[in-house]
Amino acid sequence: EVQLQAFGGGLVQPGGSLRLSCVASGFTFSSSPMFWVRQARGKGFELVSDVGTHTTSRYYADSVKGRFDVSRDNAKNTLYLQMNSLKPEDTAVYYCGTYNDHSASWGQGTQVTVSS
Questions:
Q1: For 33, which of 10, 22, 49, 77 is 20 to 30 Å away at the CA?
Q2: Where are the beta strands (DSSP E) in the chain?
Q3: Distance between CA atoms of residues 33 and 20, nearest Å
Q4: Which among 49, 44, 41 has a CA at the least distance from the CA of 88?
C-alpha cells in the first residue's frame, strides 16, 4: 500500500522560508516520479513541482519558479520542497504524491500559511 506523509508546514511571514518533507513507503521510491501539489481554500489543486527519478528532470509551476526547489533522497525514501521568498498566495495545503502509467496517489497534506 502506497503511503505518503507530508510534514513541515506552518505559519511563516511573507519573505520567509519553509522546507517540506514527504516520507514515502509501500512502493519503490527510487524508481518512481514524485510531485507536490497544493490546494488553497476554495480553489482547485495546482501542480507545484514534479521530479523524475533523477533530479535532473524537474518541473515547476510558473507561480513558484525561482523560489521553490524540489529534491529527493532515494536512500531515505524522502521528497523535499524548499520554499523561499514565500508569498501570501502560497498559502495552501501541500500534498506529495507519486504516479505511474495507471494512477496517481497522494497522502495527507501539510498546511502552509504565509501571513504577517
A1: 10
A2: 3-7, 10-12, 18-25, 34-39, 45-51, 58-60, 68-73, 78-83, 92-99, 104-106, 110-114
A3: 17
A4: 41
* Residue 106 grid coordinates: 497522494
Q: What are phi and psi of 30, to 5 degrees?
A: -65, -20
List the one residue out of 91, 116, 109, 115 whose CA is nearest residue 41.
91
**Which residues, 6+ apart, have CB-to-CB distance to 69 below 8 Å?**
81, 82, 84
Grid coordinates of 113: 500559511
Query: Can you read off the three cell numbers belonging to residue 109?
Result: 497534506
pLDDT tens-digit map of 22-64: 999 999 999 999 999 999 999 999 999 999 887 678 899 999 9
Tell me how far apart the alpha carbons of residues 114 and 11 are, in angstroms, rounded to a whole number: 6
